[in-house]
Amino acid sequence: MTGQNYVDYIEYISGVSTPHHNILPSHHKSYYIGSAVTLSDGTAILYGGGNLYKNETNGEVTALFPSTLTTERRFSHTPRMLHSAVLYKNKYMYVYGGYDGENVLNDLSMYNVERDYWKVINQNALPTPSFKTELVIYNDILRFYYGVT
Predict the structure, then answer these.
(1) Could you tell me the pTM of the whole model?
(2) I need a surface site. Which of 61, 65, 114, 125 has the fewest CB within 10 A?
């Protein structure tokens, strides 16, 4: 994505979190605090989020289509907020950690954006549980930059 389309898209995504934005159904609006967003072929994939005041989290995956201003629910996963996500090869969204309303998490899962399914990754070699961790894929290696433990 380049040029004007990229700028429009970022403005659209930033508007999703505001309470006055009308693109998301009303039951979604309070849940997109602390969600993870990745961009895949012009579609924003939102996962999780929560409401700290109510100590609630959700595991919904929602696809946002800026060109038509529509949303589509996808296959859900473990509820969480303040987690990290990174998109790999424009197809696989890796999600790590977060907070489930009671515990800080250290699990790693992969969501296939094209086929709409989740896979839990081997949990044996994962870092300390954390939230607000940054994920980066560089040279086909997933790297963790620790957040809050």
Answers:
(1) 0.74
(2) 125
